[in-house]
Amino acid sequence: MRHPMFTYDEAFTNAIFEYCRDRLEHDAPLDFGMHSPVPLPSLEGMITDAGRNASQTLEFFRDALAQHVVSIDSPGFLAFIPNAPTKNSLLFDMVVACSGLNGTSWLESAGVVVAENQALEFLAERAGMPRGSGGVFVSGGSIGNLSALTVGRDVGRTLRPDVAPHELRFAISADAHSSIGKALHVLGIHPLLVEPDDHRFTRANLERALAADPRPETVIGVVATSGTTNAGIVDDLEGLGSFARERDLWFHVDGAYGGAALFSSQRDLLSGIRHADSFIVDPHKWLFGPLDCCALVYRNPTIARTHLAQQAGYLDILHGGDDEHYDWNPSDFAIQLSRRARGLPFWFSLVTYGVHAYESATQIAIDLATRAADRIAATPGLELVRPAGLSIVLFRRVGWSEEQYREWSEKLLRQQVAFVTPTRWEGEMVARLAFLHPDTTDELVGEILDSMFA
Ligand SMILES: *Cc1c(COP(=O)(O)O)cnc(C)c1O
Fold first, then answer.
1. Distance 230 CA to ligand 1 centre (A)
2. CB 280 within 8 Å of CB 133
3. 22 lies in which domain range?
4. pLDDT at 338 exceeding the cut of 60
5. Cis ω on the peptide bond leading into residue 367 (within 30° of 0)?
6. pLDDT tens digits, residue range 385-430?
7. Which residue CA neighbors atom 14 of ligand 1 most closely?
8. Measured from the CB, is residue 175 less than 6 Å from ligand 1?
């Protein structure tokens, strides 16, 4: 007699597959998030000693909870950074969920680690990083940045033994992602906050900041962004990267969103990533994988392992075997230990659709942004704030108050047209479109822009 929690229930299993099939078959309904017309149900009393009927609980989720979530994979989701997982990545995510894969060590999961590593090597090669680069898939850009900067800090400490650890700094742009500031906060490292040129961090900015700084020797690394989240601006990766090489500074490139432009016509903007000591790109953003997944790649993974591998009696068996790959434990390259094989859905999708499909899907988002920008520039009453950056467009409706932007955003969602949220740019609230899903249409963009005059 099996334990009730481990008993196969054919009918309920079918109900779950039916639900998933329905989500896979149709475009995701936009749904409502916090702006749902009906109130969130109370969950009081849901958790009971005896448990509830599974099919009814699934129905409750479907009918009462799911519509309170804006589907991030809807082609009408143009806020923040959308997530548009390919069909095969979603399907394979279900395989990962049902397979008991623990992507922690070579000992347990060699068959998974080789596949994930193939995907990481592919990304590293695209980025122009040398053979032997490698790392691990982690939960997201924030953890990727934190892990990479931890290694950068530790390397900096050994290179600058004369500087007190709490005085070491990373040079970052005022436009760096908030997760960079948070990572430095966790690490107890101060930023040298550099004011970029029109939001783009360049070698000249850095040189000027260091020349004006009383203690430039305390700077041990540089963080550049390949595609800012707010505006899609790519820093001067070539200049910053070559400067970092010359000065023995750790060079980290945060490409969580825009690293995927390596697959687009704008890849030349990203060629300076080849200088990176560490680089991240989120497959759960513009590489069409499911949440949550970030590829973290080090130029020299051995250094990362030296600083990040966890040591414990019960883990000794993971290290130091005869197999030449035996030591490739994904857990050694970031700050987590146990990990879902979260790179596998991306790997499966890349293998099955092929590189050209990725290139075309990435390019479509850039082309959508370019055409949206052209249309905005040609519409009286609308103004581009700046040219489209990768797949992001910032623009204003001339004369609008902040309240009007908020009402417009809420109304588009209530009417289930699109999810578009305003952003702040140089202190001003402006409208922002972030393209990603290849099935977003120019017609939808037209409808969104027209709605500003309704
Ligand atoms: C999204 C983003 C991050 C954070 O990534 P998460 O996956 O959300 O943790 C970091 N940097 C940039 C540039 C981003 O766009």
1. 11
2. no
3. 4-71
4. yes
5. no
6. 999 999 999 999 999 999 999 999 999 999 999 999 999 999 999 9
7. 256
8. no
